[in-house]
Amino acid sequence: MIEIKELHKSYKMGSNSLHVLKGINFSVKKGELVAIMGSSGSGKSTLLNILGMLDEADEGTYILDGVPIEDLNETKAAEYRNKFLGFIFQSFNLINYKSAKDNVALPLFYQGMPRKERNTMALDYLERVGLKPWAEHLPSELSGGQKQRVAIARAMASQPKVLLADEPTGALDSKTSYEVMDLIQKINDEGNTILVVTHEKDIAHMCKRIVYLKDGVIVEDKKVNQVRASSYVQ
Amino acid sequence: MFNRDTWKEIFDTIRKNKLRTFLTGFTMAIGIFIVVILVGFTNGLQNTFEEFFGDDATNTFFIFPGRTSMPYKGYKSNRSIRFDNSDLTDIKENFEPLLQYITPRITRSNLVRYKGESNNYTNRAVAPAHQFSEKTIIMKGRFINENDLKIKGKYAVIGRLVEQDLFNGEDPIGKYITLGDSAFKVIGVFQDDGGDNEERFIYIPYTTRQLIEKGTDRIEQIIIGFNPAIGYTGAMALEKNILKLLKDKKVIAREDRSGIFIRNIADELKQNQQFAQVLGFIALFFAIGTIIAGIIGVSNIMIFVVKERTKEIGIRKALGATPRVVISGILLEATTITTLSGFSGMLAGVAILQNLGDQLEDYFITNPYIDIGFAIGATLVLIVFGTVAGYVPAKRAARIKPIVALRDE
Question: Cα angle at B222 between B219 and B227, to 5 degrees?
Fold first, then answer.
């Protein structure tokens, strides 16, 4: 599903250049649930942003579902993001003046799906994350966990190849975190490929594979026995 | 891009961002409102100006006698010049085809009484043609006619305000007023656009005035209306020729500048027109200035709006919005708001101008108005510039990498 070779990325900070990714080689198969771990500054978010086409690599190749991702202009990148990827952010990034349903329907709007169809579909996905009764609520009327579940429903709505989650539990208490991870695990059970960036060990161990990043290189890449989040959730 | 779904999305956004919508709309509405009001006021100022100077007929010469300033043909200097009836006939005979009318004017001030009421009024002893030179409008009865001159009748035509002062609502026509020592029959009431002063005059036949003053044939002023067909140059030549005729007749040196004066309204009119033109330029300057101020205001608010939406743009892009969709969304929204609010601001301004009418006459603003084409044009200019001003930051925002926009918290 994802193939990365010799990926480099550096940021210019004034006159200094900060080399963040120093040659990453990495691949993900369909249906995997991968945690990317590392201390802050290790480059894990940068890696995820490049995977998400939110940022561009300086060097290296990136193949997503057989499509080489290179020389993207903004329009092309937007299309790919819409077709291939779903995002889950630490700060949810819901549009605050749109109801839960409209937020979920937004990627479908950009796909050009007719209004009725996308509303039905949005409600369908809200039901899957257990928030159908909150469909008409604004994000400000939802709890953090609920917001993240709306964001997950939104990420799922466009039926992406890969879900990318950047610290999805970073802004949540542990109980809610486990609920969210439970949801992510269930989505993974249905065969979806998911990448989770986290610095929390227990969250990482709820994935099937952990990739450790340190100073811009992968120092460890191992399969783990998945801890089911449902065991923490009543 | 213009399908129903896009519009629904836009109106949704407008409805759910009330503050932003209000700020944008308010800036736009207030901008165009001020343009309309200011331009309207300047137009009102021009109206006042025209009313001040446009009252009297413009094809008029006023001829006054003065005192000579140099000795000539045995006469000493500082001799006082007088006009009499023969001067009238001489001018009439010599310049007949060039004249529209000619009238003398003798001005006096007398105590006027009717029943218990009395007051001092200026009276002008004139010929019937005087009606044209002052554009006197008869409200009741009639003006002085040739027959009145012939019989030297004691007839008076009184101003609207004289009637108001003296008659207490009584119909003045046919009543007798005492003017000085004689009784005059009121034969007409007039109004004049030249203001209150002009409506406190009383007109009587000049022959009657001469009779009262012991049968003299003196007159004070001669007023001439020339045939407008002779044009500005023709009027200038006529002025010179009349001066020549009178100076020869009264034995005044041709180069003596103070023996006889002619006030030429045509000349004044030209100056007034120049002044009106300057006023017009000032009006234009005001209009352009306020439009520029409006453009700056609308541009600022657009830049602010786009800045405020940076994060939202990032989210939308992460979800698969292309830059084109992002930009057109922002611009359509902005243009919708500015168009609706711009035209309501314009209509509000026009409505206020229309309702003001004469209420601001004390401040020299009469009937303020704005050319509706100009108002619409100014509104469109503001909308276009608002859109352009929104386009630049929107384009930049759409080009920002989503990750930068999302980080911006």
Answer: 155
